């Protein structure tokens, strides 16, 4: 992709290869490209895509992922101890005034299940946030490699094109040809317009001096 010369083709590649967020009832889901038929997937499915980029791969929270998996396994083991304690107490009875093997198994199983479960939930959420941050790094790195984004994350207009501070693209040189579509997963900060730039067609021109407003009635 980095060897593509045509600016319009690089814009198209950036649109197709970027990762987009979708706000769905079940939470945030991700798609590669903005095709409406793309299947939204969870953040766990982004592993191979993010590992394909060096910067995004270095930002992946691998330690949080491993810690979450270990704590989840410990939660399952402590849950088995809790279930065993419950079954034994149902058969033998439970007396908290006298600590026996059954009551100790039940209490320790419940405490470990609660502790490991909370730890697994916290590390899982931290890993999810880390993957979401890696998505931004992946998109920015992709845009810089294709030459459509600046290192600051702002959109880099093609030669002969001016972008005003409201996001409107102004064609300064007619020989530059048609403008490629602007696409970005993040709203970039627009640079200030250059001196002598023509006003945006969507903004009405100010009234000239001497013109009088006419009442249609």
Report on the architecture of this protein:
- With 217 residues, the protein is mainly alpha-helical.
- Among the domains are: 7-60 and 133-146, no CATH class; 62-126.
- 45% of the residues lie in helices and 8% in strands.
- The strands form 2 sheets. Strands 1-2 form a two-stranded antiparallel ribbon. A two-stranded antiparallel ribbon has the order 3-4.
- The longest helix has 46 residues, at 101-146.
- It is rod-shaped, with a radius of gyration of 29 Å.
Quick synopsis:
45% of the residues lie in helices and 8% in strands. It has 217 residues and is mainly α.
The main sheet orders its strands as 1-2
Largest sheet: 2 strands, antiparallel
- What's the helix-strand series? HEEHHHHEE
In whole angstroms, the N-to-C terminal distance is: 61 Å
Q: What characteristic shape results from the CA principal axes?
A: rod-shaped
Cα radius of gyration in angstroms: 29 Å
What's the mean pLDDT score? 75
* Number of DSSP helical runs: 5
The portion of residues assigned to helices is 40-55%
Uncertain parts: 174-217
**Beta-strand content:** 5-15%
- What is the number of E strands? 4
Q: Please state the structural category.
A: mainly alpha
